[in-house]
Specification:
Layout (H helix, E strand, L loop, with lengths): L2 H13 L3 E4 L8 E4 L1 H6 L3 H12 L1 H13 L2 E2 H24 L14 H7 L6 H13 L3 E3 L8 H16 L7 H20 L3 H8 L3 H10 L5 H6 L9 E4 L1 H21 L1 H14 L18 H8 L3 E2 H7 L20 H4 L13 H4 L7 H10 L1 H4 L32 H4 L3 H13 L7 E4 L2 E3 L2 H35 L2 E2 L3 H5 L3 H14 L3 E5 L11 E5 L2 H29 L1 H7 L8 H4 L2 H33 L1
Antiparallel strand pairs: 1-2, 3-5, 4-5, 6-8, 7-8, 9-11, 10-11
Helix pairs in contact: 3-4, 8-9, 13-14, 14-22, 23-25, 23-26, 26-29
GO cellular component, one term: RNA polymerase III complex
Family: Belongs to the RNA polymerase beta chain family.
Subcellular location: Nucleus
């Protein structure tokens, strides 16, 4: 390659954020490295565009697609490109209108150019484009590019550490207190670097949010779209913007959790859950916190982040009035429900304990004592006419095959089921909070929150169980769940616990050990370590299994891409024909039948391969990013 080609290639890779570089002060050379994380995000292009289309509309999707294709772009260049596109569309619309009687048809993508020209461009004007960019910036879907954008996290950390040491610790670090102070100042410096990309959003917030501007416009009686666009401030044409993939991942995680809730509860409860997630993650910048940057933040900020919750009224105001909340709720009389158990408030996430010494202040009961009192008085808090269901475990076997069927009392009074809309919403929220997966938590009176760490752990286990079931069958999944519940089990005791014959059990366990779902540990009885006298303990390491599954997903995805590349080489002559300007968009009319059939088969194979890659990306997202 010539130096000119090399510089051009580096510039293109940097523009698409596929290459990172670092220049030491006073150095003559720059050090480059590939940005593999961003390169993988290209796989999610279709999902991001679909999410933007659902949340912000088709015009915002068109702008995001332009940013994905052009990479980091100056606003003036983006405006100029859309001006040319709008002018060409207007000219083409005029030509189509003049030649409509003659039935002329021009060439376009997939043969739909005639229909596209009738509908016109998605972005109508530069003011419309400015309004769309403002909305995406306020939603943090678009970030500002600054100098540190092109450096890796390791180089940024090293630079900040050097600046902090030179400014605050020129004589070195002495003592634990100085070490803690150093970590806090480094975290503060890293947060300043991270906040540089939000400078454009802060400027827009000074003029009020987009929702506030629309309310002002509605109060003034202006409902025209042009007035709505003119309310947005003009952006700096020299500002360089790019797509914020961290924020896109937050919305993609919400969509995945809503799908998870749909599989368990149904559409109505999942819709309520989607509104809850949207309100909770409105200002959430990324899925996973950064331990290096979160050190030393103000305690008030940390407490506020820990108390991030929404009220029932906020959720109710965000719900569509057309949604029937009475669907998806079981039928039960009031006297058959324990009010204390249903309305129990959980102040802390699952597994988090509070010291009694910290809670006992001024004679108040501790959190543990409150829980004990609540548990002990649950029976007294039942309604006076509550009747416990009568079940037996004898010969009649109510808990057997016939006793597990859910039966609703259809003769119950209709007035007991006709709840108002807020009460119906609470039923859905309580259903989410009482689930085994901990979809939501009732953290206060009419307050709700979501603990993402235990929830994503449950989702990862669900994905792992699904893979185990497809690979080793229901029997293998049952053995894995037994090992999770019991811990390490001796191979001699495992047949009795699993109620399986020893040869079948050994064959199934070896099969799952090869797949990486279970593991075995040899424990010698004495110092001689005789194999015949050793214990062999089977166990299930979920983290190790998830790492193995993630590695397998990467390899499968690479294999799919290699298969697609081999198909493209095989059908190279047909694909080169479709690139001709007189064939593109009219393949069926211009190509011979044999060539068109080969082209159709290739498109079908390509569609299936891309669908498989998307399913693998769903799995990778759950295991690594969410």
């Amino acid at each position: 390659m010539t130096p000119r080609q090399l510089r051009h290639g580096l510039a293109v890779l940097q523009q698409h954020n596929l290459l990172l570089y670092h220049v030491d002060p006073g150095a003559e050379f720059a050090f480059y490295e590939a940005n593999a994380e961003h390169a993988y995000n290209l796989v999610r292009t279709g999902k991001i565009l679909e999410m933007i289309d659902t949340s912000f509309g088709a015009a915002a999707k068109d702008v995001m697609q332009s940013l994905l294709l052009s990479g980091q772009t100056r606003i003036s260049d983006l405006v100029a490109a859309y001006q040319d596109k709008i002018e060409q569309a207007n000219k083409a619309a005029g030509l189509v209108g003049d030649d409509d009687d003659f039935g002329t048809e021009t060439n376009g993508l997939n043969g739909d150019s005639h229909a596209a020209k009738k509908t016109g461009p998605q972005v109508k004007s530069t003011a419309h484009l400015n309004s769309i960019i403002c909305r995406l910036v306020e939603a943090e879907m678009i970030d500002v590019v600054h100098l540190k954008t092109f450096e890796s996290s390791h180089d940024i950390l090293r630079t900040v550490e050097k600046e902090v040491m030179d400014k605050y610790f020129p004589a070195g670090i002495k003592g634990n207190k100085a070490k803690i102070d150093l970590q806090e100042r480094i975290a503060e410096g890293l947060r300043k670097v991270r906040d540089e990309s939000k400078s454009l959003k802060r400027k827009l917030e000074q003029n009020g949010s987009a929702a506030k501007r629309r309310k002002i416009m509605a109060g003034m009686g202006m409902t025209n779209g042009n007035h709505e666009e003119n309310l947005d401030p003009a952006l700096d044409p020299k500002q360089v913007i790019r797509i914020n993939y961290d924020r896109c991942l937050v919305d993609l995680r919400n969509r995945r959790l809503v799908q998870f809730a749909t599989d368990i509860f149904g559409d109505t409860t999942a819709y309520v859950y989607g509104v809850l997630l949207k309100l909770l993650t409105k200002d959430l910048p990324r899925c996973r916190p950064d331990s290096a940057m979160d050190i030393g933040e103000d305690k008030d900020d940390n407490e506020e982040k820990g108390r991030r919750s929404v009220t029932t009224d906020q959720i109710l105001d965000s719900l569509k009035t057309s949604v029937d909340l009475s669907l998806g709720i079981g039928k039960a009389e009031q006297r058959q429900i324990s009010s204390a158990a249903a309305e129990k408030v959980e102040l802390y996430p699952p597994g988090k304990k509070v010291l009694i010494a910290e809670a006992e202040v001024d004679g108040e009961a501790s959190a543990d004592e409150d829980e004990d009192d609540t548990d002990s008085s649950e029976e007294s808090d039942y309604d006076s006419d509550y009747k416990a269901p009568t079940t037996t475990n004898g010969v009649n076997g109510v808990n057997g095959t016939h006793g597990t069927k859910v039966k609703f009392d259809e003769s119950a009074a209709p007035r007991e089921r006709q709840l108002d809309r807020p009460s119906q919403l609470r039923q859905h929220l309580l259903l989410l909070s009482e689930s085994r997966q901990h979809f939501a938590r009732h953290c206060g009176p009419n307050e709700w929150t979501v603990d993402f760490v235990p929830l994503m752990h449950a989702l990862r286990e669900t994905e792992l169980d699904s893979v185990i079931e497809r690979t080793s069958g229901r029997q293998g999944l049952r053995l894995v769940r037994i090992l999770r519940a019991k811990g390490k089990l001796d191979e001699k005791a495992l047949p009795n616990v699993a109620l399986m014959r020893k040869p079948e059990l050994q064959q199934k366990m070896l099969e799952m050990q090869t797949a990486g779902f279970v593991h075995v540990q040899e424990v010698p009885r004495d110092l001689k370590a005789d194999v015949k006298k050793s214990f062999f303990l089977w166990f299930c390491d979920v983290d190790r299994s998830l790492d193995r599954l993630l590695d397998t997903s990467y390899k499968t995805m690479v294999h799919c891409v290699q298969v697609l590349e081999a198909l493209r080489q095989k059908e190279r002559d047909v694909l080169e024909t479709t690139k001709r300007t007189d064939v593109r968009g009219r393949e069926k009319d211009t190509m011979r039948k044999e060539y068109y059939e080969r082209y159709s088969r290739f498109l079908e194979c390509e569609r299936k391969i891309f669908a498989q890659v998307m399913r693998l990306d769903d799995l990778v997202s759950v295991l690594r990013d969410f």
